[in-house]
Structure formats: structure tokens, C-alpha cells
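Annex B. Sample input.
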Amino acid sequence: MPLSNKTSLHPSTFILIGIPGLENAHIWISIPFCLVYMLALLGNFALLFIIKTDPSLHEPMYLFLCMLAVADLVVCTTAIPKLLSLFWFKDREIRFEACLTQVFLIHSCSTMESGFFVAMAFDRYVAICKPLRHSGILTHAVIGSLGLAIVFRGVVLLSPHPFLLRWLPYCKTNIISHTYCEFMALIKLACTETRIRRAYSLIVAFLTGGLDFILIICSYILILHTVFQLPSKDARLKTLGTCGSHVCVILVSYTPAFFSFLTHRFGHHVAPHVHIFVANIYLLVPPMVNPIIYGVRTKRIRERILKVFSPLKA
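Annex B, continued. Sample output.
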């Protein structure tokens, strides 16, 4: 009996059930998910290749964009292959250690993505509000230091999550009503008091996504203040146009992220399949859309893409 209790308290594997209520539609849902994932891989690798091979694009905004692309690739690749295996082959089992690894990589890299958005907002602030000092402030050394600080923050603040989950007893069930492992999905399976762990997760979420969003808003208030002091309407529109891609990417990324975060903690009346579907959208859509937004809206990247895909035209 003690051995049995120990096994039930610390399962070696968890069972992912996918999207509750939509099990019969998994194979159909997997088709757009797979297409979006392939587009995300293609778009981000193309973006990294173009920026790396074109020295004229080795500027702060594009270097931060490279960092964002790497984080996007890690996030979606951590979750989507297992999701497709679940949908296609009914491969529902995931080992406890692999589950904790998923939790860490998804949450830490999502935190890094948020940090890169702040860095890109800072770049836009300096470029518009202090244009003559832009190259002096955002040197390659400063860009590298900011990138390392963002990665360090994500690793340090999210490293406790797997350990907080490992030490929990799971005597309710080992079935996760989700397509991948995430912190709150596992917390709900625990049969002990979890208020401290939930509080830590909430604090980390505020210190990362919440604080980052406030900093981005502040930077754009300062940017708008500067822009509206420009003498002509054309100058104002042209200056704001340089921020368009960044604003679109922020909206695409933060909207499903906030919805997923809030429904996990406060949205008890939101249907489970709606929440889980949005959680998957958060992992899939931003990595696919980010390269498209910058490829379409940024003239220099667009011209470079056209040159890569039509090298023989003359």
C-alpha cells in the first residue's frame, strides 16, 4: 500500500487529453495547426537568414527581432510536435520530466519574448525621441547586454517553476486537460495547498508580462508626445509608420497571452475548449505572424526577401 500511494502521488507519466470536448475533431484541427507551425518555422528561419546575411540590417531593431524569432521557435517547437503526435497518433503519454521541461521552456521563453518587445519599444523610443543619440546609446555591446539580461531574467524567474511542481503530490489524477504541460494545468492536479505556488506564479507574471506591458505603454506615450510636436502631418505619419510593425506584433502576442492568463486564474465560467484553443493560438499564431508583419511592413526586409527569391531576374 505505501508503494502504491507513492506511485500515485508522484506519477512517472501524465496523460494529455488534447482539447476537451473536441476529441473527435482533433485530426481536422491538426491540419491548420500543422500548416501554421510549418509557416512559423519557414518564416522565422528565413528572417534569421536574411538579417544575418545582410550587414545593413545589423541594427538594434532587427537584432532584437532575431532574438524574438529564436524565442518564438523554441516556444512553438517545445509544444507543437507533441501536440501533433497526440492528434495524429493518440500519443497521449508524456513523462513527468519531459512535462516539467515543457513548463520551463514555454514559460521562460514566453517571458523572454515579452522582454524583447520592451527592448524593441526602447529602440523605437530612442530612435524617435533622441534620434541623434540612437547609435551612441544602442551600441552592439548594449544590445548584447540587454539580450543577455532578458534571457537571464527569464531563466532565473522561471527556474523555480519545475521544482515547485516536482515537489507536489498528485493524488487526484495524472490526466491533464490540455494539449501541453503548463504551470496552472499541473497545479490544478495537486492534492495539497498550492496558494504559495500560485502567488509566486502571479508575482512572476506581473514582474514580467505585466511590468513589460506597462513599460511598453510608457514608451509609446513618450513617442506620441514627441510625434505630435512634429510640424507636419506627413512627418507625423511617417514617424508613426516606423512603429507600425512593432505595435501589430505586440497586439498579436499580448491579446491571447492575457486572455489565457486571466481565464486560468479568474475565468471559471469560460468553456475549457475555448481556453485551451486560445492557449494553442498563443503558441502558434505569433511565431507565424511576426515574420509576416515585419516582412510586409518593413521595406528593407521586403526588398531583401524579393532579392533572395528572384536572384536571376535582371
